[in-house]
Amino acid sequence: MMTSVDTDLMRVLADPIRLQIITLLARETLCSTHLIEETGAKQTNLSNHLKVLREAGVVDTEPCGRFTYYRLKPDVIATLASQFADLAETARATAENNVKRSCP
Predict the structure, then answer these.
(1) How distant is the alpha carbon of residue 90 from its chain centre?
(2) pTM of the model
(3) Which of 81, 78, 91, 75 is CA-nearest to residue 2?
(4) Cα 40 from Cα 88, distance rounded (Å)
């Protein structure tokens, strides 16, 4: 029951601003103006974070007039959560069976 967590995605989500962005997008679809107001980030900084999230496949965009709205892709987060759940189950089984590698 060996499992691993998507380390590239973890790096993307490890940034506090990006984590704040995905938390906000989990609640509602927002445009960059809303995200600037909520995060306090500068426009260029926020744009860079949104680009990283888009390229990682974490958010989708939706053009609406002169604005672009951002939406969290729940399946990506669900997959990551599942990987952590598998990891926790492996750790639980290891602890219950007192599995440890012997020293040379």
Answers:
(1) 22
(2) 0.81
(3) 91
(4) 35
